[in-house]
Each structure stands twice: as C-alpha cells, then as structure tokens.
Amino acid sequence: MDNWRLIIGVLLFLLGGSALKGWAQDDRRVRAERIYEHLIEGRGDSIYAALNDEAQRQLSPAVFADTWRQLTGQFGALQSAGAWTQEAVQGVELCRRDLTFERYRLRLLVGFDADGRLNTIRVVPAPEPAGAPAVAFDRTLMEERDTVVVTDGYRLPATLTLPRLKEEGRRVPCVVLVHGSGPNDRDETIGPNKPFRDLAWLLAYRGIATLRYDKRTKVYGADCVPQGRRLDMDVETVDDALSAVRLAAGLPQVAADSVFVLGHSQGGMMAPRIAQRSPQVAGIIIVAGPARPFEDLLVEQSEYLASLTTPSEQTRARLDELKRQVANVKRLGTPAFSDTIALPLGLPKGYWEFLRAYRPVEVASALTCPLLVLQGERDYQVTMQDYGLWLMGLLTRPKAQLKSYPALNHLLQEGKGKSTPLEYNEARPVPSCVADDVAGFIRGRDVR
Fold first, then answer.
1. What's the pLDDT tens digit per position in 2-11?
2. pLDDT, tens digit, for every residue of 294-324?
3. Which helix (H) or strand (E) holds 301?
4. Judging by beta carbons within 10 Å of its beta carbon (0-12, 13-18, 19+), is residue 317 exposed, middle or buried?
5. First CA to last CA distance, the chain
6. Full-model pTM
7. What is the reported pLDDT for 11?
8. Which residues neighbour 17 within 8 Å (Cβ) at sequence distance 6 or greater?
9. Within a domain: 395
10. How many domains does one find in the chain?
11. What DSSP string runs through 17-46?
12. DSSP label at 330?
C-alpha cells in the first residue's frame, strides 16, 4: 500500500481560511456531498471553481479530473461510503466521510471558508477500528472517591481510585498520574479519549490505586503562579505532583512505601525531577516523555503537521517565525539573546530558562529508585529518537527498564502507520498491555 501516497498526494492540502462558525452543520454537509459527487464523476473543473482564491493559484482543474479513477485503480471498486460527520482540525471545521474500497479504507476530508469557498480536500487512510475494548468501571472491583490536592493554597479537585480487596485493612500501591502540557483535567481528556481514567481503572483491576487531579493551569488559568514566584515547570507541574505524592502516602488504604509517579509527555519529562525532590517516591514511570530540548520538539512537531498538507504561505510564515523564536531561546544566557523577539508559545523568559537548564535524562540517571520508560513507536509528538536518548542515558542505570509498543501513538491509542492529530478524535482506549507492564513494574517484575 506504499503507493497510495503517490495518488493521494494530489489532494493533500489545507489552505488558509477561517472556520465555518457561522454555518449550520447541514449546509456544510450538503456542500461536502456536492464536492464528493464532483470527485467521483471526474468533474475537476467544478471542484476547481469551488476553491478559494489561494487554492486556485496553486492548483489546476487537471489535479482533480482523474483522481477518482486512480484511487479505484489502486484500491479497487468502492464498496461503501459512510455518513458525513464533522471534526475540528487545526482550527478548521472539516466534514469527513469514510470510504471502503475493495483493498483499503480511506477518509475524505472537505472544508470551506466562512463564505463557502472550498479550502480543504484531503484523502487520508481511515483510522483503524479500536483494537482495545473500552475500559469499564466495575463497582464490585473498584471504588472512586473525590479528594483535593492542595499546594500553597491552590486546591485541585482530584479522584482517588481504589481496588476493592477481599482482605480488609491491606494497603495497596498507589500511582500518582501527572499530566502532559496544557490545561489538562484529571482524566487527561483529549477528544473522546481519557487515557488517565483508563489507566486508573485498568490498574484498579490489578489491585493498584491511583490518584489523579485537575492540573493547576486548568483550574486557575493565568492566576496559577504564587506571589513572588514565576511560571516554570515547578509551578506548572512539579509542586502539585509532590503534594499529590504526600497526599497518597498519607492515605490509610495506601502503602506509604509504594507510591509511584507516572508522568505522561511533559509529566514524563518532569517525573525524574519529582522523584529527585521527594524521598516518598518509590519509583517513576515515564510515558512518552521528551528527552530532547522542548523547543526542538516544537519545531519537529510543527514541521510534521505542516508535511501532512501542502502548507499555505501563512503556515510557512508561522513555521519560519517559530524557528526564529527557537533560535533565540537557544541564545538564552548569552549576549546574542534578543529581548525583542517573542518567545515560543507566548511563554515567559523564566519558563524557557528553566527548560534550558533542566536535563531529564541526566536527572533520571542519578536516581536510585526503580524507573520504567514506555514509548509508543507511532508517536509523532515524542518520537523514538527520544526513546533512544532515554535508552542510551540509562544503559548503566540499575533498576531501569524500557519498552516500546509498535502499535501505540502519543495517547497510547492502537493503530497502524504514523499517527496524526485526526486519530485523537477517535475513541480508542488504553490497551490492557500497558497496565500489565505498569503493574508488573510496581510489583518488581521485569517488563518484557
């Protein structure tokens, strides 16, 4: 199926234009259906006429005239076309329809400017159906209690998930779940997916408690920084994780010497610092944790997302500006640094100074507690390059284990091929094998 890129590439563009906020959903789908009919009937002129001005400057009617014949020649006759649905991608509302051919499933994405001009028509592989079954909450095997994680007066709503045990009074291990970047809730909700909730329930089935909480930036927004402090990773992530560890260790149901920290993405990057600052941490699990400078990941992610489309001039300009900002970040602490250049993501100088000084692999290699690194091989946000850096940095580190999963992406969703943001809009739960490995690690077993 490698040749599909040669055929689909002619339709792969996402051009400037506003989202369809003023339109009714039915109007969008009617227009999308019309474009679909033009496509299957080879009416390239009609599709071209529907394009906005920028798209017309870059494309020609011939691009679309023969596309359907090439698709069916490569993948066989169309077997069925699914219903139109909608999703937001990179700020644009797209109509989507899954097409099942004899030999492959594809997804057609169509989007329009606010004035109805076509700005997007993409054909991509349709996501694989979820392989893992949905994670169910079983009241006979687990219970959940509301609690609060408190740091410097900041109160973060939290959930304690406990396994129901036959032996009364037995204390269990507990895992504190630490979020990735952004204002995440306690479930780390992204689209229909809730990976932290899934992990909490999966671990409860395995006799392990979890504590998860809403992130401070979600609860307090711009007011998340204590007086006299500046925004950095300690304020955003580490301080609250330490409070959660203390809370978990003091619970009567939890074995105080078996409190572990599981950090995902940014939380994984900061997990070594959490353990460095707390003797109560019995071990850490780093899931999709960056090992490279954070600013380098920003550029790599942005370049990858731009490669999924034929980028507009605006997209290229934004990428160039990001690279200029990142180059300036790398000059922090030198005379070449410029205070007149905006910093990436609008984050303050102190935030980037903290990140530039922090070396997660070096901190992890100096820890004495057990350590587990887990990585999805399909992850485009934190890649196998990061995993390789963890591997090399921890080669001589006792009690360190590492494992990668060929089918998983950044959210621990199963699928095939390199992941894209579209997958995050598909409900795909965390597979049980991840919880098996985490539980085995907590109980001192080798992860294979």
1. 443 434 443 4
2. 999 999 999 998 887 666 788 889 999 999 9
3. helix 294-307
4. exposed
5. 31
6. 0.77
7. 47
8. 52, 54, 92, 111, 112, 113, 114, 117, 119, 120
9. yes
10. 2
11. ----TTS-HHHHHHHHHHHHHHHHTT-HHH
12. T
Residue where a domain stops, chosen among 93, 125, 157: 125
- Contact (CB, 8 A) for 63 and 118: no
Residue 92 has what pLDDT? 65
Domain identity same for 193 and 104: no
Helix ranges, 187-228 (H): 195-205, 216-220
Residue 338 annotated in active site: no
Q: Is 312 among the domain residues?
A: no
Q: Are strands 400-405 and 254-264 parallel, antiparallel or unpaired?
A: unpaired
| 376 and 288 in a common domain | yes
Are 289 and 375 contained in the same domain? yes
> Is 264 known to be catalytic?
no
pLDDT, tens digit, for every residue of 149-206?
999 999 999 999 999 988 777 899 999 999 999 999 999 999 889 999 999 999 999 9
103, two tokens: 């030999």
Side-chain half-sphere CA neighbours of 53 within 13 A: 1
Task: Name the more confident of 53 and 243.
Answer: 243
- In a domain? residue 309: no
If you search the block for the tokens 């993405």, which residue do you land on? 265
CA distance 401 to 285: 9
Range of the structural domain that residue 117 is part of: 4-125
Share of the chain above pLDDT 70, in %: 91
Q: One of 265, 278, 312, 419 is an active-site residue; which one?
A: 265
CA–CA distance, 221 with 165 (Å, rounded to integer): 39
Q: Parallel, antiparallel, or unpaired for β 172-178 and 254-264?
A: parallel
For 307, phi and psi rounded to 5 degrees? -70, -15
